[in-house]
Amino acid sequence: MTSRALLLDVVVRGLHPFMIFVSVMLLLRGHDAPGGGFIGGLVAVAATALLTVARGHRQALARLPLAPVPLAALGALLSLGSGVPALWVGEPFLTHLWVEAPVGPWLVPLSTVHLFDVGVYATVWGALGGLAAAIIAVDEEGAA
Amino acid sequence: MGWLALVPLTSFFAAFALLLRGGPPLSVSVPWVPSLGVDLGVHLDGLALLMVLLITGVGACVFVYAAGYMQGESGRRRLALVLLLFMTAMLGCVTADNLLVVFACWEITSITSFLLVGFHHEEESSRKSALQALLVTTGGGLALLAGVVLLGNMAGTYSIQELLRTAPAWREQPLRDVALLCVIVGAFSKSAQLPFHFWLPNAMAAPTPVSAYLHSATMVKLGVYLLARMDAAFDGTPFWGFTLMSCGGLTSAWAVLQTLRERDLKRILAWSTVSALGTMVMLIGLPGDDSALAVAAFVLAHALYKAPLFFVAGNVDHSTGTRNIDHLAGLAPRMPWTAAAALLAAASMSGFPMSFGYLAKELTNVAKKEGGLYTWIGHSSVLASAITVAVAAIAAIRIFWHRGGAVVPGHVHEVGWSMRLPPLLIASVGILFGVRPRLADPLIGAAAEAMHPLYDFAAASATARAEPGWTALLVALTLGVGVFLAWDRLHDALGKVELPSVLRLADWYERLLRGIPAAARGVTGLLQRGALTGYVTSLVGFVVVVLGAVTWALLGQRGVAVEVSPGGAPWGKDLGVLGAAVVLSVGAVAACLVRDSFVLLLSSGLVGMACALLFLFLGAPDLAFTQFGVEVAFVVVVASTLLRLRRMDARPSAPQRRLPRIVLSTSLGVLVTALLLVALGAPTFDPEVAAFFAEHSVEDAHGRNVVNVLLVDFRAFDTLGEIVVVLVSFLATLPLFQALRVRGGEPS
């Protein structure tokens, strides 16, 4: 590892968890403030791409919650599945349902919408992150 | 498989009962694909019944015959299955009232014909012939489909009966002749008319039961059937009459000359079938109503003599092992039953009195006389009937009674009953109808009336019987005997004449087949040059052309309307927008000036970031975030690729000319700018939509971020589709990069 990459390595080491944190925040607050699954996913993709450049695609993929293909596929399935409950209550597919779940003293609104958005987030992260890592990895191992 | 004959036999008797019942045609209709206007309608009039009786009657005989012919062969179940399928499709084709259903059945007969011609698929010649038959007939089928759709659009219905009834209302439309040409090409390819005739003799690679059934009695008559069906609507239009008469007459004469060049009995019969089909087409093309009766009689007569002759050829082949007429002579004592069948069929084919062929020939002559045929076609048809007589004599007399130089091998013996009876039975019917013409009257009369509803059948048959055309008949018979006696000499003489390849249509077919891969290679070479700059140039060039057209059209429609919105926004916001615009311009100008690809990437990244800033200050934070994310990921990925390219020392393979590229990129930039200016003036933005979403977002979807609510709730189905696209493109591209990595990792 050259000295130039060392600097990048140090910076990214701190930046990566922060970017993932921001991406999750964006995902969670998305329904009421700027953000959402797609944007959050893109930030996560940028984090993965940076990590790949700094430390190689093996390490970057190890920091994904799942391998890229399962992650993306699971995301699409989640989004698809979030539309199914509506069918049980006789509404059209993808009509989102809301419940107020009691968590301790608070009532937290939960919805199939969140499931859907998490699915979008996972698909974007898995697919585009995996792709970015794959593209960068071509260079990395070809040179080795 | 002989018992399978019961299947067509029941349909045969059902159709027979319908025919005896008389009365108006039976018509039943069930909706099938209502959105396309396709009904499963059945219309059983005289013409349909004639075809049904032929299909089922000959079909039953074919199943009995095939049981004997294929005894002990391994593929006979396959043969029976495909034959049944073929028969069903044929029945569908001649009884359906909807043109689209007719087309579907038509194509099934082409495909089953392919399977049957290629029955001996171990032999290459067999496969080749099958493919040829398939390509020619389905190619014509495509033309037919185009014609059917054109007709359907012109008439507003796909029902044949409806189409014929309303013909005077729509047949003056300008596209009529195009539609007619398409239908004619389809019919000609199926019925082996010039210039599509060459597949039929080659289709003789099929087992004999198949040849007797498909290539003489039924399938090749489909084209004739369709033309006869349509004749009522187009009779009298010059294009229709001229095309049918000249092509039919030409085919008839040309094919009959080809018989003289052949030595294979089956191929001789095949060419004479092509000739007979030509005569039928010519008869349909004759203006006036008189031809209808002749067509019906000829279709029936031809099936009644040609199918038995094919069976006879099969019998001879089966017991002697050859179909070459040079090696066949004096078989009558060994195969008396087959010889009898051959004699009966040949009598009808040559038009001897007291046979049905005689009657058909007489009606044909009357129709020709009344219809005012071109003189040259009249002469050529005399030639055709003379050689037809000679062919009949070859098939019956030369093989069975003539004692030529050939010696009959000792093992030759008569075939089994299942192969003796079918030809005898069918040929006898041909004679029976000749002796007692009134028996055939209801059959051909009803068919003629179905072709031409106003046709007075009784009067026409009375005229035909009042003036028998003895002269034409005698001329044909005398000439025919002459040709028969001089057959070998004529054969040798014609064999010396080699047609130039330019005139041989089978050669054109070969050329076409070879041309397809060559053309594909040419196009691929032109488009897939393997250089990225080439791809980008053609891509951008295409976009420039399309955008240019769109912009031009819009400019003409609307003109440019630039509206500067009145101020009123906070001062700080304006400053932000201004700053973003400055950064954007700097990035854009830099991108135009720098030569280094890495710096170029950074400049374009700068433009993207400035865009995101602009979105942010203009009140679209979601868009801005997305733009940031995409831009960062894009720059990182492309930068790493560029680094690799630099390390590989990759350079453009050819020196690049700058001027065309400058022109191309400048015009793209100008066009996009112009298009945006035009689009800004468009009144397409409906503020009510925004108001609606703003109002219902919290209420219905519990979300204050309208953009996100749109994505995940109101238009969730679209988003679902989009992420599936993301997933699929990922899965499609991933192997590509993995392969690159594997190759790059290998020591080279």
Structural commentary:
Helix content of chain A is 72%, strand content 8%. Chain A is mostly helical and 144 residues long. A two-stranded antiparallel ribbon of chain A has the order 1-2. The radius of gyration of chain A is 18 Å and the shape is elongated. Chain B is mainly alpha-helical. Chain B has a domain at 2-496. Helices cover 75% and strands 2% of the residues of chain B. Chain B contains 31 helices and two strands. Chain B has a two-stranded antiparallel ribbon. In chain B, a hairpin with a 4-residue loop joins strand 1 and strand 2 (38-44). In chain B, helix 2 (46-69) crosses helix 19 and helix 14 (290-320) runs antiparallel to helix 18. Chain B is elongated, with a radius of gyration of 37 Å. The mean pLDDT of chain B is 83. At the A-B interface, helix 2, helix 4 and helix 6 of A face helix 27, helix 30 and helix 31 of B.
**Cα end-to-end separation of chain B:** 64 Å
Query: What is the makeup of the main sheet of chain B?
Result: 2 strands, antiparallel
**Helicity range of the residues of chain B?**
over 70%
Low-confidence parts of chain A lasting 5 or more residues at pLDDT below 50?
A: none
Strand order of the largest sheet of chain B: 1-2
**Element order of chain A: H for helix, E for strand:** HHHHHEEH
Oligomer: heterodimer
Give the amount of beta strand of chain B, in percent: under 5%
Helical percentage of chain A:
over 70%
Count of individual helical segments of chain A:
6
Q: Please outline the major beta sheet of chain A.
A: 2 strands, antiparallel
Mean pLDDT of chain B: 83
Report a brief summary of the structure:
The complex is a heterodimer of chains A (144) and B (748). Chain A is mostly helical and 144 residues long.
Attribute tags:
A: 144 residues; mainly alpha; B: 748 residues; 2% strand; elongated
What's the layout of helices and strands?
The complex is a heterodimer of chains A (144) and B (748).
Chain A: H1 3-29, H2 37-55, H3 57-62, H4 68-81, H5 84-88, E1 98-103, E2 106-111, H6 112-143
Antiparallel strand pairs in A: 1-2
Helix pairs in contact in A: 1-2, 2-6, 4-6
Chain B: H1 6-21, E1 26-33, E2 38-44, H2 46-69, H3 76-95, H4 99-117, H5 124-155, H6 160-165, H7 167-170, H8 176-190, H9 199-202, H10 208-217, H11 221-234, H12 238-259, H13 265-285, H14 290-320, H15 336-350, H16 356-371, H17 375-400, H18 417-435, H19 437-451, H20 457-466, H21 470-485, H22 487-496, H23 505-527, H24 532-558, H25 571-593, H26 597-617, H27 621-648, H28 658-680, H29 687-701, H30 706-714, H31 716-745
Helix pairs in contact in B: 1-2, 2-3, 2-10, 2-14, 2-18, 2-19, 3-4, 4-5, 5-8, 8-11, 10-14, 11-13, 12-13, 12-17, 13-14, 13-17, 14-15, 14-16, 14-18, 14-19, 15-17, 15-18, 16-18, 17-21, 18-19, 24-28, 25-26, 26-27, 29-30, 30-31
